[in-house]
Amino acid sequence: MAKKSSGTTARYNRWGYIFLIPFFLVYVIFSFIPLASTIYNSFFENYYSGLTQIGPKFIGLENYIKLLSSPEIWKYLGNTLIMWIGGFIPQITVALILAYWFSDPSLKLKGQRFFKTVIYMPNLIMASAFSMLFFALFADAGPINQMLISLHILKEPFKFMNSIAASRILIMLMNFLMWFGNTTILLLAGMLGIDGSLYEAAEVDGASASQIFFRITMPILRPIFIYVLITSLIGGLQMYDVPQILTNGKGTPAGSTTTVIMNLNQYLTSKNFGMGGALSVYMFIITGILSLVVFRINSAKKD
Amino acid sequence: MRRSMLSLLLTATVAAGVLTGCGDSSTHEATTAAAEGAGKVLNIAAWNEEFKSRLIDHYPGYEEVDGTTGKIGDITVKWHITPNQENAYQNRLDEILLAQDKAPQDEKLDLFLVEADYAIKYTDTDFTVPLTDLGITAEDMKDQYKYTQDVVTDSKGVIKGSSWQGCPGVMIYNRKAAEEVFGTQEPEEVQKHFSDWDKFNESAAQLKDKGYHVISSMADTFRIYQNNSKLPWVTEDKKIQVDDNLLKWVEDSKKLVDAGYCETYDQWTDDWTKGFYPEGNVFAYFGPAWLIDFSMAKDVEGSIAHEGGWGAIEGPQGFYWGGTWICAAAGTDNGDVVADIIRKITCDPEIMKDIVLKDNDFVNNKPVMEELANDDSYANEVLGGQNPLKMFCAGADKINMANLTAYDQGLLQDFQSAMGDYIKGSYNSVDDAMEQFYTLATTRYPDLTR
Predict the structure, then answer these.
(1) How do residues A47-88 score in pLDDT, each as one tens digit?
(2) CB of B13 less than 8 A from some CB of A
(3) Residues B102, B215: one domain?
(4) Using a CB-CB distance cutoff of 8 angstroms, which residues of chain B are in contact with residue A268?
(5) B447 neighbourhood in chain A, CB within 8 Å
(6) ipTM score of the complex?
(7) Min Cα–Cα distance to chain B from A266, Å
(8) Which of A161, A157, A179 is nearest to A170 (CA)?
(9) How far apart, in whole angstroms, are the C-alpha atoms of residue B193 and residue B157?
(10) What is the spatial distance between Cα B338 and Cα A30, in angstroms, rounded to a whole number?
C-alpha cells in the first residue's frame, strides 16, 4: 500500500516537472545562455572594424580594467545616479502622501478607484513615446516655449535641451511621472496590511496624526519601503529609453545625460562584444547584490 | 499515451536538428554554384524607396508586383529596405554580407546601395565585386563625374560601384529677404555678398539687423568645411586627425551663434525646417538638387518653395551632400542583370536625361548635364524659374573625394555632436569638447587611437 502511494506521488511529481519545462526552456534560451555568453565574451577582445572581425582573442580581465580606469564610466554612472535620485525623491514623497490618503479610512476619499487608475496611467505609455512627447513639447519652438512667451514670462525661447540642468530635470520629471503611480500602489498595499487596531489604540492614547505616521505606519512599512527603494534603484541603473530618445542617443548637452546603458549602446556600432560584455557583467553584479538585499529583507520578514 | 507524447516531442527535436543540419550542407553547394547569371531572385538592399522608384520609372522591363517585390523578365526582384536610423541599415547589411557565403542561392544579396560616408567600409573589402568583372568598362563610365568614382574606388584603385547621381550643393537663398536687405534678388548680385567666408559673416550681420538668420543652424555649413578639408580623418596607422578646416568651422560657427546670426538646431528637426516658410526668417540653406526638390516643402501652400521664392548661388565654397552608389555584392548569381542595371541607370545618357527631366535629379553624366545647363527651356520652379544646372555642373567638377576613410560617418557624427555642445556653450573650451570627441570616437571605433 505504502509502496503504491509513493508511486502515485512520483507520477504526480513528474507532471509537475513537465509543467515546469516551458519556463525552464524559455529561461535557458532567453536568459541563461545569453548571460553565460555575455560573461564568456567579456574576457575576449572581439569587435568588428568595418566588416573585418578583430579577435576573438583571450585577454583575461583587461576589458574590466580598461573600463574602470576610463574616466567616462564614472561620469556616466554619476549621471545615472543623479537622474535616478532626482526622480526618486519626488516619486516616493508623492507616493507616500497619496498612499496615506488612500488608506486612511477617516478621510473617506471619493472616486478612489478612478484616481488609482489615473495615477497609474503614465506607466502604460511606452517610455519612448513619452520621451518623444516631451521632446516636442520642450523644443525651442515648442508649445511650452510659445506659452511662456505669450504669457510674458520669457522674452525669447528657453533652450531646454541646451541646458544641463533643464534636460536632466526633464528626464527626472518623466521618470517621476511614469513611476509614482506604481509606487503608490505598492505602498498602499503595505499600508492596508497594517492592523487597524494599532491605529485605534494610538488614537485612544491621544497620538497626533504625524506621530501615528512616523511611529506606526513607517516602521511597519519599512520592508516594503526598502523593496521599493531597491527595485527603483535597479530600474534606475538601467535607465535608457527616456534619455536615449530625448537626446537622440547623444546624451547631450556635453554628455551630461548619458547613462551607463546608453554607453553600452555606444559599443554597438563596432559590435564590441568584449567591452559591452564587461560593462554588462558589472551591471549584473551590482544588480545581483541589490537583489540579494531585497531577498534578505523579504525572507527575514517571514521569520 | 504519455509515452507517445514524449516520443513525439523527442522526434520533433531530432527532426529540427536534422533540418538545420540540412541547411548547412546545402549551402556549400550553393557557394560553388553561384556563378554568372542563372539566379531566379535578385535581392536588393537599400535604405529608402528612392532607387526603387528610379527602377520602376526608368529601367526598361521592370514591373512592380507589390511593395517589396518586382519582376525583370523571369527574375523576381526582392527589396530589403531598412531605414537608416541609428545605423540600422548598415547593421542589417553587415549581417547579410557576413552570412552571404552560407545563404542559399536565392537569398544571396545581389546588389546593395551605399552612401559616401561609409562606402569605403564596403568597397575596400571582398564583399563587393569590381565593376570590370561584371563587364563594365572605363569606356562605359567615361561621362561620369570623377568624384563619384573616387568615392567607390578601393585602396588598390579598383572601381567597385557606380552612381546615377551627382550631388554638388549650392546656397539657396530667400529672394524676398535678399531684396529687402541687399536691394537686389538677382543671383549674380547676391553672390557678391557671399563670395567668401568673410563676406558671408559681414552679410550675416546685415541680415541680423533686419531680423533674419543667415542660415538656420551652424550644422548647415558643416558639410562645406568638411568637404574642403585636406586631411583624411584617419591616418595610415589608425590615428584620428582633425583637419584645420574643421576647427575653423568650430571657430566660425561659435562666432555666428554667439552673435545671434544663426541657431543651433539639429538638421531635420521642426525647428530647423521653420525657415522653409516666410515666418521662419531664415535667409539661406545649403543643399544639392535633392534638397530643393524633395525637402523644402514645395507642395505645401504658404512655403517659400511653393511660391518659387528661392534663388541659387554658389556661395562661399563648393561642396557636395549625399548621393547613392550601387554596389554588386560578391557571390551574386545575377551578375548579368546587376551589370545591366548599373549600365542603364548610371551610364545610359538617354535614361539619365529622362531622370533629370522627370525627377529634377542631378545625374552623373557630364554631357547630359552640360547640355541641359545651356538649355534655356529648363527651369526650376522652386527657384523662381532659375536654371541652376550651370552652377551644379561647375560645383561637380570641383568636388574632391580622395580623402574618404571607412570611419567617416561615425567620426563626422561624433565631431558634430561634441563641437555642437561647445558651440551651444556647454563646454568652456574647445579642448574639453575635443576630449569628448575622442572619447566618443574611440568608444565607437576601438581600433582607432587619438
Answers:
(1) 888 788 887 889 989 899 999 988 889 999 999 999 999 999
(2) no
(3) no
(4) 87, 91
(5) 47, 49, 54, 270
(6) 0.81
(7) 6
(8) A161
(9) 41
(10) 40
